[in-house]
């Protein structure tokens, strides 16, 4: 399965609503200890996408990471399968 990889801060429509444009599955990554962007930004976005009817979204939350969730993510070979 191919995924779109997105930063934990999604694009917004100018009114605070997140927008995701992708015709593939979405895999979101976030560190719980991130003080720059709260993890709720990602959890809320994923919940909204699921509530809208999509089952093509996946969330990975790293309990021991801060803002840099990309290093461990890009080292994960599952990302490239």
Total DSSP helices: 2
**String of helices and strands:** EEEEHEH
Classification by helices and strands? alpha/beta
- Ends distance: 7 Å
Estimate the strand proportion: 25-35%
* Overall radius of gyration: 12 Å
Shape: flat
The spatial strand order of the largest sheet comes to 1-4-5
Q: Mind summarizing the main beta sheet?
A: 3 strands, parallel
Q: Give the low-pLDDT segments.
A: none
Average pLDDT score:
79
Q: What number of domains? A: 1
What is the percent of helical residues? 10-25%
Question: What this model shows, in words?
Answer:
By secondary structure, the chain is of the alpha/beta class. It has one domain (3-80). The protein is built from 2 helices and 5 strands, in the order ββββαβα. The protein has helices spanning 39-51, 70-74; strands at residues 3-6, 11-12, 18-19, 25-31, 57-62. It has a 3-stranded parallel sheet with strand order 1-4-5, with helices on one face. The protein has a two-stranded antiparallel sheet with strand order 2-3. Strand 4, helix 1 and strand 5 (57-62) form a beta-alpha-beta unit. The longest helix has 13 residues, at 39-51. The radius of gyration is 12 Å and the shape is flat. The relative contact order is 0.24.
């Amino acid at each position: 399965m191919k995924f779109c990889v997105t930063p934990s801060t999604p694009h917004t429509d100018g009114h605070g609503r997140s927008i995701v444009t992708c015709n593939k599955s979405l895999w979101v990554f976030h560190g719980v200890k991130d003080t720059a962007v709260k993890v709720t930004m990602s959890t809320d976005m994923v919940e909204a996408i699921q509530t809208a009817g999509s089952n093509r979204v996946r969330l990975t939350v790293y309990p021991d990471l801060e803002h840099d969730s990309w290093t461990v993510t890009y080292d994960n070979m599952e990302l490239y399968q």
